[in-house]
Design brief:
- With 83 residues, the protein is α+β, with helices and mostly antiparallel strands.
- It has one domain.
- Helices cover 29% and strands 29% of the residues.
- It is built from three helices and five strands.
- Strands 4-1-3-2-5 form a five-stranded antiparallel beta sheet, with helices on both faces.
- A hairpin with an 8-residue loop joins β2 (27-30) and β3 (39-45).
- The longest helix has 9 residues, at 48-56.
- The chain starts with a strand and ends with a strand.
Length: 83
């Protein structure tokens, strides 16, 4: 199963603290692809049961399963920020 995860910049520190991981949601996004960063993104593929556990923990993020990352970003009107 593939999942895409999106987090607003204002919530990223809280999400990383909650998960006790600083290396998650590392892809910066914005509506125009330029700074300032407004959202953070990641996409992952894994066993259905593992991905479902991640989906079940959805709290401060937007998550969707079985969607192409390009379609997910287009749906949310976001582009990669080039640094």
């Amino acid at each position: 199963m593939r999942i895409c995860i999106l987090c607003e910049d204002s919530k990223i520190a809280q999400v990383r603290e909650k998960e006790k991981k600083s290396d998650i949601l590392l892809v910066p996004l914005s509506e125009n692809g330029q700074e300032p960063v407004t959202h953070w993104f990641c996409s992952m593929v894994g066993e259905d049961s593992k991905m479902q556990k991640i989906l079940d923990k959805q709290e401060l993020t937007i998550m969707e399963s079985n969607i192409d990352p390009k379609d997910f970003l287009k749906k949310h009107n976001l582009k990669f920020v080039k640094k």
